[in-house]
Specification:
The chain is α/β, with parallel strands linked by helices and 198 residues long. The protein contains nine helices and seven strands. Strand 3 and strand 4 form a beta hairpin.
Amino acid sequence: MNSQPLIVGVTGGIGSGKSTVCKVFEILGAVTYYADDRAKWLMTNDGQLVSSIKRLFGDEAYENGRLDRQHIAGIAFKDQTMLEQLNQLVHPTVANDVEQWKKANKDAPILLKEAALLFETGSYKSLDKTILVTAPLEVRIQRVIRRDSYRSREDVRAIIDKQMSDEKKIPLADYTIVNDGKQSVIKQVMKLYSSLIA
């Protein structure tokens, strides 16, 4: 048995179904770090990060101590510089948090890091393997609209257009899982899990 767990990145554009793939891996014994959810948690609970975000976006970035995601998204997704500055604040805090999480879960067979921007940030280079989850554009748009009722179709398209395309990600990924609603994700994950722990 390997003393160090295998650290595998799971990525894909918005609405591709990364979380669904991770849930199947978890049933098999993997432990997942949900980078985007954890980043949101840190943006509300890490005092230093909260202060930095308020300096960048103003006090209205928080309402009653809670991060106003719509306010921040409204600015960051329209202004590339603001988005980059936000990422420069959040990514190092998350990276630090990941290291703590790895230490806490060193006995797991596989550790998954689920993140939307694995290739964009270059953080995939610190992982053992990467899995790209793909889905057709229309399927992704419908999933996001169902999940986030406050987003319009235009909002979702704007986010997708800002993200790196699957065509550019596929050559960087070690494995691809197709989550199109037709092919069995469970079968794909089980097959992949077996080969990863072999």
